[in-house]
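In practice, a research group might receive sequence data for several interacting partners and want a quick structural hypothesis before committing to experiments. The following worked case mirrors that situation: the sequences arrive first, and a predicted assembly follows.
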Amino acid sequence: MSYSISEIAKMLKIRYYDKEGLFPLVKRINGIRVFEDKDFPWLRMLNCLKNLNMPIKKIKEYVDLALKGDETLKARYQLILEQEENIQKQIKELKYYKKQIDFKKAYYEKAIEAGTEEVVKDWPNPEATLDVDELPNKGNIGNRR
Amino acid sequence: MSYSISEIAKMLKIRYYDKEGLFPLVKRINGIRVFEDKDFPWLRMLNCLKNLNMPIKKIKEYVDLALKGDETLKARYQLILEQEENIQKQIKELKYYKKQIDFKKAYYEKAIEAGTEEVVKDWPNPEATLDVDELPNKGNIGNRR
DNA sequence: GCTTGACCTAGAGTTAACTCTAACTTTTAC
DNA sequence: GTAAAAGTTAGAGTTAACTCTAGGTCAAGC
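A structural hypothesis for the assembly, expressed as tokens:
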């Protein structure tokens, strides 16, 4: 089974990504892109990296490595390892900020109950630092801010 | 204790955020911003929203609501609830993509061991769909892509 | 054969979030 | 009092990731 570009374009911003060189291996008939089942694992992988906030240029690097074949296996493995760390950091970061949000949630619940923010104005924040070193790092091992 | 802008600027891109109207309540002496301990909970909150990928304009809306006082308590509470959902979705999404990354990790480990990708080329992907409906939604309740 | 519609491209335009520059003021150190 | 350091601003420039436009090709249906 094959897929037309309009079908695929609903799922990803295909033309743009193709322009950026992200799928050099997709078949063409008379210049028209024809996606096949075999392309899907690749599309899924690109979609994954994109949603992990990897910049297009970095994804392109990965594509170029993949094109070079077996000699770049270790480099690609390295990139995957970085993404694994990246995911862990992002989850950690989200959980960190969840504390702040949960605090504010309770804060507003109490304030709404009382009809005024006055009663909660001096509730202590969950953590008293803004020091960058104590904030989780942004999940940015090579990925965008 | 107070803090100079250069001290604060290391932590956040203060001048830019101020320009965007994100801290209208910070004190000034002869036009120079003077941050005080009382400002920190606010700065932390802005930092939190920023790191949850809320666009500056949306953060500004929150700031403007806060300035209006008690009449906007419910609206602000609503915004916080959205962020709570947003965090849950983002964590879910990250865990989803982690499966893909873990698959690739094992894939490359095997390929490196064998010296060639050939041996793993036909390993089945963890999930066989690219259907947008089956992918977790991007964590974007009002937040940027 | 001709219109319609789905596809193609190059390139211009848009948007968000910075980032830098230049010219000015205020504070600090001697 | 004066020079340097650190603060200020408006506004121009940058970058990434789209998004749109204009003009063109090609196959299908009438």
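Before designing any experiment, note the following. DSSP finds five helices and three strands in chain A. Helices of chain A lie at 5-9, 14-19, 40-51, 56-68, 73-114.
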